[in-house]
Structures are given as structure tokens and as C-alpha cells.
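User: I'm curious whether this sequence folds into something compact or stays loose and floppy. Could you predict its structure so I can see for myself?
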Amino acid sequence: GGSILYDFSSISKDLDSLYCASHYIEVASAVIMEDSPADEHMQLLLNTLYVLSGEKMNLKLLSSVFEMRLLSIEGYTPCMDSCVICGKTYVSGMRFSCEEGGMICCRTGMEISDSVAEAIRHIINCESKRLFSFKASEAVTEQLFLISRYYTDITIGQKFKKLDILQGKVQ
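Assistant: Here's the prediction. I'll summarize afterward.
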């Protein structure tokens, strides 16, 4: 017989956490191909569930970290250092385009603060052990959450609705 290495039952005690866990599994299932190696994907999912079950990380921030990192692992890393259209080096005031996959200066996109751009850079570039070790203001968390949700839906080509329960909630 086997033994339980970690008990995630604490997730089921909070409805928002349960919705988040379900969302993470749904998104991971949408990108992981059957019979393909998915060690990095599964490690991210496990680490995210671990943080969800124990630490009191803001759920919107945790969800944004999971989605942006998962898409990066899958090969959909947003271009954050230059315009994806013309190649101009990143400068403050550039916008983010989910459709184009990164920062843009020569087309319309979502306004993005320098702090949100820096948060995305951290998520996509940091070592795995540092992934969940940053804090963000409420404003940065809200903008990052909206961007990561839309970027995930656009990139995967599917509307994920489980996290709609967090929309409008302040945590």
C-alpha cells in the first residue's frame, strides 16, 4: 500500500480555494498532451496546490503566477523586453497585447504599469523555488489577474470560468 505524502484536504474547507484548485487542474489538463512528458507542468501544479493549501497568498496573485508560468512552460512566454511587432526595446508606457503575446508600442493593447511588467518578468524568468516568493500591491495584483486570465483564455483558445468567482473580490 501507498502512503499520503501531503494532504491537500485544507483546500476543500474554503470555497474560493476549491474553485482555484479546480481551475488549475482544468487549465493544466487543457495544455498537457497525453503521452507527453509533463514533469515541469506537474511540479508547477503540485507547488501551486501546496501554496494554496497552506500559505495565505492572495488567490488572484497565486492564480496569475500559475497561469503565466504554465503558459511559459508550454512555450507561450510573453515577450516582455521589446515590442513583439517592431522589436523596439521596452520603455515605460508600452502596452500589453494578449493576442500578440507580449509588449507592444505600435498597436493598441492593455495599459500595463511598470510594476505589472516587472511581476510578469519575475514569473516567467525566475527559478522555480522563487516563483511564489514575491508580493504585489492590490492594484498590481488586480491588473496582473485580468491580464493572466485573458492571456490564458486567448492562448489556449478556451474560456475558463471557474475563477469568475474571484472577479470583483478584494482579498
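Summary: Residues 138-156 form the longest helix (19 residues). The chain has a mean pLDDT of 91.
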